[in-house]
Prior knowledge:
By secondary structure, the protein is α/β, with parallel strands linked by helices. The protein has 3 domains: 15-59, 434 Repressor (Amino-terminal Domain); 74-171 and 304-331, 3-Layer(aba) Sandwich (Rossmann fold), CATH 3.40.50; 173-300, Rossmann fold (3-Layer(aba) Sandwich), CATH 3.40.50.2300. The protein contains 12 helices and 12 strands. α8 links the parallel β6 and β7. α1 packs across α3, α5 (90-101) packs parallel to α12 and α9 (234-246) crosses α10. The longest helix is centred in the middle third of the chain and has 16 residues, at 202-217. The chain is elongated and about 80 Å long. The N and C termini lie far apart (75 Å).
Amino acid sequence: MSTxxxxxxxxxxxxxxxxxxxxxxxxxxxxxxxxxxxxxxGEDARRRVQDAVASLGYRPNALAKTLSQGTSxxxxxVADQIATTPFAGQIIHGAQDEAWKHGFVLLVANTDGNVDVxxxxxxxxxxxxxRGILYSSWYHREIAVPxxxxxxxxxxxxxxxxxxxxxxxxxxxxxxxxxxxxxxxxAGHRRIAFVNTTTPSPARSGRLAGYxxxxxxxxxxxxxxxxxxxxxxxxxxxxxxxxxxxSGATAVFCHNxxxxxxxxxxxxxQGLRIPEDMAVIGFDNQDVIAAHLRPALSTVALPxxxxxxxxxxxxxxxxxxxVANPTPVRCPPVxxxxx
Length: 339
């Protein structure tokens, strides 16, 4: 039956539509519609929301009607690219398992870094009144927090924003760098090179700090000539190999597994054997690389699964949040045959 001319409103009107017409945030619309106790909303804003609801014919969807006390059994996860990367998707896996353990279901939106998609995803999750949102990037870095995240409980995973007031869960880069270096020291090496990335990042500074701390603790003099800059991919490691050999090092800690793969190529080209002539350890545990090099690469794993799970625990108040300083998650060694 046609609805033309009978005053019916178009279907699928959302809180986002109401917020746009009323000139307020989605959170304000949610507070007004759900009559949230304690919400500080001016009478003018409340009236505009009510007028927009009436004019647009907004009706809460069936899911929202079943929600108790304004929250659901959903947790949102908004990611830039981790669902499409070979190992960082473990963040989703860890968050999903932890959420399910506590009676929640994970709603996942992979935005591919598109700001409009990201805003729409967060708006949809707010409309469904998720318990909170995990926001994750595919590599550890400082971010600018989307404003909409501040409208609900949110936790940053594998990223951080110092002035946002949001808790963050990140890999312990310093501990990881120290662990990698400690493994080489434990194998008897005293002259250890470190091929570090040229890209400024928490990984660059943290892993270097860990490397230096391990050497100092072992009574080994620091030698800046052993810290070699390289672009963080296979070609960077390959190009750094002549400097590694010239340094007199017997072992090398590589910023990541791709760099280590390039070092393998460079050492093999010079007729050097791993680990007999040069021990090598990487970082990331990117399985498609590390487990399939010959010999298989010893490395330090980025704890993606554990970060996802920890993010959910922080969101649910089961773990103490790290606001002033992000909560570090240990990076474990994965020992194979290259040391």
